[in-house]
Amino acid sequence: MNRVISNRYTQLAQAAGLSMDPNSGALYGRRGPYDVTVFAPNASYPYALSAVVSAIRPNAPLTKEEGQAFSANLKIVSGLTQNGSVITMSLKSTPNQRKLQEGLTAALDALISFLMQGGFQNCCQSCGRQDVVAPCYAGGAYLHLCPDCYANLQQQVAMNDAQKQQKKENVVAGVVGALIGSLLGVASIVILSQLGYVAVVSGIIMAVCTLKGYELLGGKLSNKGIIIGVAIMLIMTFFGDRVDWAIVVARELGIDFATAFQGISLLLEQEIIEASTYWGNLVLLYIFVLIGIVPTVLGAIRSRKEASRVYCLGQATEQR
Ligand SMILES: [Zn+2]
Fold first, then answer.
1. Environment of ion ligand 1 (residues, CB < 5 A)
2. 142: CA distance to ligand 1 center in Å?
């Protein structure tokens, strides 16, 4: 998390009387009788927040009408829903920090008094126990758990982790999967280019599908898999550009696609296709595709690491 974003979370935490978890940026703390966690579903976009409380009402869960009535009273609230015992209050996105701070504080106050009046009781979201509950983080999600459920979860995640470690990686199958996946990226490059665009979205599609393809057929996505995947993305971007040219050449010269594809090097050599145009287009394509690929790959690496992290908010050990 960079400093600007971290500062925003710190300010929000101070305004709302909550603490900030330095690892995830989530805000957490006790508000009246409830444990509250406030987080941005996309941690690097701290303008759209959600607040969660785990609480149950003895007779009936929160109704849709109640949620709508609550949201209608507060400008900043876009929804209030209950799923199991998890009550989620979503806030409207605003880049204005001051508005967000004031809105969040007011919305939390309103939520707490609404829950208290409704007779909701703070509880563990897994077993429903109503004693000590701690806000925690597990694989990118925020949970309110009692000590027993938290220990169980830790154990489960450790077991999954061990199983994953044992899983064998089949590199050859992974490469095949990555190649198949990357074809979707190629298709996106070619289709968009034929429509007259180069777009970052091609890079995102290329990266997501290539890594997913590797993981599906290769069994798991290791560092080796990611490196191979990135190499395939770069090669397939070149290939996609060639396919795009071949379509143009085939159309202009009235020849079939395969001949056109093979003939591109020759056309370049004989300067029928201008070198500056060809390479200029290719560089532009790579820039756009890389803008899509880099954050997608970094995101995949991060979420792979985060998947096995479990801790109580505020008690994270250093990044693994
Ligand atoms: Zn529990």
1. 124, 126-127, 129, 146, 149
2. 14
Distance 138 CA to ligand 1 centre (A): 15
Q: What is the pLDDT of residues 11-61, one digit of tens each?
A: 999 999 999 999 889 999 999 999 999 999 888 888 999 999 999 998 889
Domain boundaries, the chain: 3-161, 171-306
**What's the mean pLDDT in 137-156?**
94
Residue 231: both structure tokens together: 């190499």
CB 265 within 8 A of CB 225: no
- 144 alpha carbon – ligand 1 mean position (Å): 8
CATH 3.30.1460.10 given to domain 3-161:
yes
Task: Check if the beta carbon of residue 135 is closer than 8 Å to that of residue 144.
Answer: yes
The C-alpha R_g of the chain, in whole angstroms, comes to 26
**At CB < 8 A and 24+ separation, what contacts does 261-264 make?**
none
Find the 137 Cα to ligand 1 centroid distance in Å: 15
| 42 Cα to the center of ligand 1, angstroms | 27
The tokens for 87 are 């009550």
DSSP state of 197: -
